[in-house]
Amino acid sequence: MTETPLDISHAAMETAPHDDAARLGFYERIADSELYLLLEREAQGDQIEPRLFETEDARLVLVFDREDRLTEFTEGPAPYAALSGRRLTEMLVGQDIGLGVNLGVAPSSIIIPESAVSWLHQTLREQPEEVAETPEEINAPKGLPERLVTGLDSKLAQAAGLARYAYLTSVTYKGGRRGHMLAIIDALPGAEPTLAKATREALVFSGLDAGEIDVAFFRTSDPMAARLAKAGLRFDLPEPPKAEGPTAPGMDPNAPPRLK
Question: Looking at the domain that runs over 135-236, which CATH code has it been given?
Answer without folding.
Answer: 3.30.70
